[in-house]
């Protein structure tokens, strides 16, 4: 009886392993879904894309694409106005992959989440200042400075401020 149970368990495990998509297949599926969701703007496959990111990170946590896919997941959530979830994913990336080049961008994107999703100018300013303090030479540092300068202004007010600084061409 125990041998039969052991063989059944082994057969089930072999079946599960053989049905598990390879890393390359997972990447191809993600690429295809990103093309649909991000490039074409078809959000009907958004949840499927988020689940694919999760599966890849779960199955291949040591792969160099794991932090990249976490970052992309956070971006999809931010764009979808799911601020709390986006912040949670960014925190996970920073915690699990502190050496990833995407960590700095997570600190910058925290400001965008507070600014564009929660409309909390105080928290956005604090997040941008924290980013600038941590990464003063990062290419996004100047963007963070501009974001702080223009927090709370409408698009029209920002355009008017630029026009006021530009000489009028005749």
Return the average pLDDT rounded to an integer.
88
Q: Helical region count?
A: 9
CATH architecture: Alpha Horseshoe
- Report, as a whole number of angstroms, the end-to-end distance: 94 Å
The rounded Rg comes to: 22 Å
Please indicate the count of domains.
1
Any low-confidence stretches, pLDDT <50, length ≥5?
A: 5-18
Q: What order do the helices and strands follow?
A: HHHHHHHHH
Indicate the structural class.
Answer: mainly alpha
Provide the CATH superfamily. Tetratricopeptide repeat domain
Shape: globular
Helical content band: over 70%
Task: Describe the structure concisely for a colleague.
The protein is mainly alpha-helical and 170 residues long.
How would you portray this structure in words?
By secondary structure, this protein is mostly helical. The protein is built from 9 helices and no strands. The protein starts with a helix and ends in a 5-residue tail after the last helix. About 8% of the residues have low confidence.
